[in-house]
Please model this.
Amino acid sequence: MLNRSNLILAFLWMALVCFTVFYSSIGAFGVNSISLLLSIGSISILILNWYAHDYGRNPSFIFLVLGNVFLCGRAFPVLFGDDSQLATIGFAKVWDENVKTVYLYSIIVLSSFFFVHIGSLRIKQVVHHTLKVSRYRKLYLVLFLLFLPAYIYKNIYYFNYITNEGGYLAIYQGTDHIDGVGFFARFGSLFCLASFTLYFFSEVDKRKSLRALILFLILFCSELLVGLRGKFFVVALVFLLFYKLRFGGKFSIKGLLILLLSIVFLAVIVEITREQKTESIVKDSPFLGFLVSQGVSAGVSMVTLDEFNFFSPHAFSYLLHQFFVPFYSQPDVPSGWFLANDLSMLVQPEAFALGFATGSSYLAELILIGGVASVCLGSFFIGLLLSRFGRYTEGLLGAQSFWIVCGLVYYPRTMLQDPIHNFMRYGVAMLVVSLIAWFLSQCRRRGA
Model:
């Protein structure tokens, strides 16, 4: 929420960061000292955001949580007395980035987090109020249950497919799994998720909503069978946030710790299962192993900084062609279309041919569009959009906003068009489900 105290705290944080950066620049600095600055700076701006938004009642809080994990995770071991892994680029081959690139990267990340926080303060936060009763909520629940078998069948089919093909990478190597599962299963699965989202944003009874959400998340765990842990955790966290926004509630410190430990446990289990490993990355500390493995997204931005002249001529091509992502499998994408593909072909061509890819990041794409200026401006608008869409907590508009927010908070690990893809995918499906519910409601009235 925008008030004087929150602004003073934010700019005091920025002043301390700028002083530390200046002090480091005139003296000798290494990767560990830079990582300490990044770790303390990113965690402290996260705490400021949590406090400013009434203990985390804003999508920007989820964004900064994921930003800390994906963009700063490799720096965090320094907080526990270990060496930082921030400079280690761990794709198919492993190498260490130069200190200047790590230094510049850390400054850009902290600048981005600051402007996301400032942007999020511009919109008045959601105040808990009496929810409007929707006459379609029972129909949405019925449609969710009707489409549920298609959703379960699709995920079981995908699980069997990747098991037979040697691992989850099989779904990135072609479209055989999509062709094999069939049209009705895929669209039934899509309408299942659309129906539940509409029900969730239409149900006014807190207990019924909570029971339905718990049931949905248990069923949604089937996404983990396919190895899609990013999708599962993002959707689960954003549903939890909107539940608190709709019915009142905050992210307590105790609740956050329990949530963090649960996520680490599930993430490590999924990593072992989907990559057919027999042990975690870090034997002595699964928690640090989780942070280091998820923090690999830092390498995307650092390689982009190092190879700026190679990627920058395609910056707007990347932005334009992202609209075609749903229509191409990974091996069929032309060069110069997607940053993630070009970067993967540059740093790990053999692994890319097998289905491995680095992924993208909003930070890398904003750097290519206009350097630090576009990072700061873009981050401000990200914070603004997160707060704006977080205000819609009811009906079709709330359901549409939910999937857009899912795309926005996942920006640290995905491309800039991801919220638009979500809107195109789930928005149309929710409109169809809404029309079906309206039609059924009209038929029931006439029959009565």
